[in-house]
Amino acid sequence: MLERIIEALKKGVAKNAAPAAGAEVKRLAAAALMIEAARRDNDFAEDERAAITRIVGEHFDLSADDAKALVDLAEQRQKVPFGETIFTRTVRDSFTPEERKDVLRMMWQVANADGQLHRLEGVMIERLAVEIGLTKADSESARAEVTAKG
Q1: Global pTM?
Q2: CA triplet 111, 143, 124: central angle to 5 degrees?
């Protein structure tokens, strides 16, 4: 399944067009960016993995098993050359502005899952926000919203 999704993403990137934006691909892209943001501090802890699984399960209305399978699949994307570029382009080109803001909020939730925001995670999320077509103000707003919810 991973190979089929990655191939669809690569074709979209190679043609400089929006990749196929099926629900499966969109969920994988969102989960992959959350994992990328969480890994930035070189400490991808179990609480962050659990937070990503919970967040994608809630956001995409997935069962616990399906959410775990999605996170496992997103983690495998680390083996894909240019994976981050593929997934940021998918989010930028295939998600609506509100869906992109949802992904940004989810990344901030993951970054805060361990109770502390590591500087590298914050920098990474702000960089990813720009790469997916959002502004610094969008990032600050999403971070404030997540922080307020605790």
Answers
A1: 0.78
A2: 50
Question: Based on the number of CB atoms within 10 Å of its own CB, is 133 exposed (0-12), middle (13-18) or buried (19 or more)?
Answer: middle
What distance in Å separates the CA atoms of residue 71 and residue 56, rounded to the nearest whole number?
A: 8
Percent of the chain predicted with pLDDT > 90: 39
- 59's CB contacts (< 8 A; 6+ apart) are 30, 102, 106
Half-sphere exposure of 67 (CA within 13 A, CB side): 16
* pLDDT tens readout for residues 19-35: 445 788 889 989 988 88
Q: Say what angle helices 119-131 and 23-39 make with each other, to 10 degrees.
A: 150
> Are the beta carbons of 2 and 76 closer than 8 angstroms?
yes
Question: Over 2-61, what HEC string results?
Answer: HHHHHHHHHHHHHCCCCCCCCHHHHHHHHHHHHHHHHHCCCCCCHHHHHHHHHHHHHHCC
Is the Cβ–Cβ distance between 122 and 45 less than 8 Å?
A: no
Cα–Cα nearest to 125, from 47, 57, 44, 39: 39
